[in-house]
Fold this protein.
Amino acid sequence: MITAIASMLVLGRIGLAVSELPANKPDRFLAVPLAVVLPFLGLLYLGRLPGTTSSEGAIMRLAMMVQILLILALPTYALHLALGFPVALLAVELFETRVPRVLRDDIKHRVLM
């Protein structure tokens, strides 16, 4: 599911980059390898990793995948989102340690199942 969404985002970003070439604006096209292909490969790598033994690891992996999808979808904010990876992982850690167990288990069940 996430790979399909990412594939559509990648094709859209490449299409926009190619459409600007006739107007002598090659900047987006030249940035495609770093701004589009590299995050997409990272997303594929995360999606192909074997299952984690803990639910915390699964939630961290999901948070990283959502972060990469946002990087692909919002190119204007890609740098800010990339710098926000530690914040996403910290949010998962705070969720695991500070949220009451009953609420945490209910949210995990809804998100991971």
User: Anything to note?
Assistant: The chain has one domain: 2-112. Residues 2-112 form one domain.
